[in-house]
């Protein structure tokens, strides 16, 4: 035993620290009908735009290069060989934009020769189900061409990933639209009902983008939006003025037909917004540029009408499932006097399901939650344990109304 002493034993786990969040993990699919067989098999994890350049090399040259570099070199030396812009240059732009918006993001990139629900499901599976959001760039997509932009097919993929693969995600897809088409088209949710799908019709008017669109149908803003979503906490709206200034790249924003937003009437912009498209706008009195909102192709009355609504509940689903999974096929103790669940069993599962929700509440991703387990359910007959979760989300200040006037005195 030795001399009397005071002894310390360090005990771990008291701080309740959790593993780093994976909310930032994103994916980008480039649809290229001319892609080689070797290219379409790849799913590459990128930590920078340089990773993209190095991952796809043909005859000593990167398949994805910065067209801006060529433009700058051409200005210095007009005699250098002309290089026509391609969709690959647009993809480089989108990856660069993603990391501009979120330098610490993680982006899985892949080339696919077509776009359908199976392509999206298999792409998510190729990442081990890690993707929380997915961007799609296909230069042929048009809002007015329902055969090309099939939101219902995209939502079918999201449904399968949520209900079968247990790896839900949000899908952001860029598409070309003219102002006239955008106003004349029905609202997205009238035709689709795609709660996990957002259609982006915004574009930069930077010299780089304008030069690329001389050869490519449209560029859009999918990389920028994907980076903003990746950077945001799950409850945050990517149109939040304080946090998501899109910077000088969008100093003079446009739609994907090249028409500048500054030349479009407020009524027309309101119409596009009400039809639930996402584009880039400016606010009077502020030099920045911002997304108009975080719409999805679902009704405005839906609980899942915005990207942050879906990301919040998807995170809750993923985390609660991970917490409960070790108890699948576990024994359930029954109160012998009632035939219902024992109190200790109820408490155990309440804590198990509530713990990830408490972490989200502590991180201000939820306002609150409630876990309910009916003690009278007959688990001996059904072998099914039913747990009811109620989540109170964080609100978004889409409108701020201020009443102001003069008064003879203050009461």
Q: Short summary of the structure?
A:
The protein is α/β, with parallel strands linked by helices and about 400 residues long. Helices cover about 35% and strands about 15% of the residues.
Q: What brief labels describe this structure?
A:
alpha/beta, six-stranded mixed sheet, 14 helices, 14 strands, 13% strand
Describe the structure.
The protein has 411 residues and is α/β, with parallel strands linked by helices. It has two domains: 25-311; 329-411, no CATH class. Helices cover 33% and strands 13% of the residues. It has 14 helices and 14 strands. It has helices at residues 37-40, 49-55, 67-76, 87-101, 117-126, 151-163, 179-184, 188-191, 207-212, 222-231, 266-274, 307-324, 343-362, 379-382; strands spanning 25-31, 44-46, 57-58, 61-62, 106-112, 133-137, 170-174, 197-200, 202-203, 254-255, 280-281, 290-291, 368-372, 388-392. The protein has a six-stranded mixed sheet with strand order 2-5-1-6-7-8, sandwiched between helices. The protein has a two-stranded antiparallel ribbon with strand order 3-4. A hairpin with an 8-residue loop joins strand 11 (280-281) and strand 12 (290-291). Helix 5 runs parallel beside helix 6. It starts with 24 loop residues before the first strand and ends in a 19-residue tail after the last strand. The mean pLDDT is 92.
């Amino acid at each position: 035993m030795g001399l009397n002493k005071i002894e310390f034993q360090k005990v771990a786990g008291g701080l309740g620290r959790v593993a780093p969040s994976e909310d930032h993990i994103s994916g980008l699919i480039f649809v290229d009908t001319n892609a080689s067989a070797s290219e379409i098999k790849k799913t590459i994890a990128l930590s920078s735009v340089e990773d993209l350049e190095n991952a796809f090399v043909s005859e000593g040259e990167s398949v994805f290069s910065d067209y801006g570099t060529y433009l700058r070199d051409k200005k210095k030396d007009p005699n250098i060989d002309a290089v026509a812009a391609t969709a690959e240059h647009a993809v480089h732009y989108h990856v660069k934009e993603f990391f501009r918006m979120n330098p610490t993001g993680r982006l899985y990139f892949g080339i696919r020769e077509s776009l359908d629900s199976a392509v999206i499901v298999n792409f998510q599976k190729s990442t081990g189900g890690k993707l929380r959001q997915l961007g799609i760039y296909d230069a042929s997509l048009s809002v007015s061409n329902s055969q090309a932009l099939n939101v219902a097919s995209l939502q079918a993929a999201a449904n399968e990933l949520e209900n079968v693969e247990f790896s839900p995600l949000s899908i952001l897809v860029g598409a070309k639209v003219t102002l006239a088409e955008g106003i004349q088209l029905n609202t997205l949710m009238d035709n689709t009902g795609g709660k996990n799908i957002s259609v982006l019709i915004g574009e930069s008017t930077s010299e780089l983008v304008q030069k690329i669109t001389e050869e490519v149908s449209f560029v859009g803003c999918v990389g920028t939006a994907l980076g903003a979503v990746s950077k945001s906490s799950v409850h945050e709206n990517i149109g939040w003025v304080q946090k998501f200034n899109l910077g000088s790249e969008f100093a003079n924003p446009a739609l994907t037909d090249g028409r500048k937003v500054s030349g479009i009437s407020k009524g027309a912009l309101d119409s596009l917004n009400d039809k639930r498209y996402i584009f880039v706008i400016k606010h009077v009195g502020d030099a920045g540029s911002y997304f108009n909102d975080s719409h999805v192709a679902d009704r405005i009355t839906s609980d899942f009408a915005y990207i942050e609504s879906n990301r919040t509940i998807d995170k809750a689903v993923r985390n609660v499932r991970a917490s409960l999974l070790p108890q699948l096929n576990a024994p359930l103790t029954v109160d012998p006097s009632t035939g219902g669940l024992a109190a200790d069993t109820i408490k155990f599962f309440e804590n198990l399901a509530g713990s990830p929700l408490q972490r989200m509440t502590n991180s201000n991703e939820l306002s609150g939650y409630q876990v309910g387990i009916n003690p009278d359910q007959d688990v001996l007959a059904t072998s099914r344990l039913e747990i009811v979760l109620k989540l109170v989300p964080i609100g978004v200040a889409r409108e701020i109304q201020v009443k102001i006037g003069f008064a003879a005195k203050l009461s």
